[in-house]
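Notebook p. 47: complex prediction with adenosine-5'-diphosphate.
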Amino acid sequence: MPPGEFELIARYFTGRGAARDDVKISVGDDAAVVTPRAGAELVLALDTIVAGVHFPADTGARFVGHRALAVNLSDLAAMGAEPAWALLGLTLPAADESWVSGFASGLDELARRFGVALIGGDTTRGPLCATVTVGGWVPAGRALTRSGAKAGDDLWVSGTPGDAGAGLAILQGKIAASGAAREELLRRFLLPEPRVGLGQALRGIASACIDVSDGLAGDLEKLCRASGVGARLDCARLPRSAPLLEAAGDAAAMRFALAAGDDYELLFSAPAAARQSVEALERIVPVRFIGSISAEPGVRLQGAGIERDLVHGFDHFDG
Ligand code: ADP
Ligand code: MG
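Predicted complex, structure tokens below:
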């Protein structure tokens, strides 16, 4: 007989993630109780991932568990917050124990790595979908936002955007790749790494920050709108990984880097005077200078044969 809701919770969602001193009451009561931190502000985020929408329906359970938490930790990273707790709303078509076990282990591994305790949630039956709420801390008044970019600021991105999009395209049979390049691009899609350390290190350095979930150019436009500025993005400076170039070729690699989602890299602006401080963040994760913030609204792509004004959004840019 498949396990019931309460058995699943007891077996797979109790004591998951890191043990934390600030958790007074966790899974098993009607709600969780945590202790506030003096001098800090609470940062909260929620993201839902739906099978067939945010990940292919046949994605391995461990990767789905990882993704459900990773996309939320990425939002905390973009705010410069230190993650602390997660709550999980899990909707399952059936009580498939091996699936739940894989899901829980993917979530647990990532949660431990970032000091996050799973302190509650809800388990229901329905189409496969996972909603996670995360909470974390930021020193009072020091959260990063989308809205602080100023004309003249530098524009930076972490990692190598486009890899995750190419990994998804491989899974969907849209592009082909083999060997190490294939493995790396699949890993980048299936196991996104939230830039939590970088986000916290950017407090006091970045003027604005956003995590790249919907594509770099589109997310840059969101940051610009929130800040009331525009940007020039120098495409020739966009870091593109060797596996991406190998699998997609030069032109498609540029499109993946600019427009594909799922990277969970940080895109941020910083005053030119902070250039050395930003370059020093290389010790955490590679960061690359890719353009600058301008007073006139809109995102302009320059270089690599691309010159297009994106005032009206990135949706129209394809090929
Ligand atoms: P209630 O009916 O009072 O909402 P539930 O039976 O739904 O309580 O949940 C019992 C306990 O298990 C609660 O502490 C709840 O937060 C926790 N819980 C339920 N589902 C999950 C889950 N998927 N992950 C983590 N905790 C869960
Ligand atoms: Mg409930």
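Notes: The first helix runs from residue 5 to 12. The chain has a mean pLDDT of 94.
Next step: compare against the earlier run before touching the bench.
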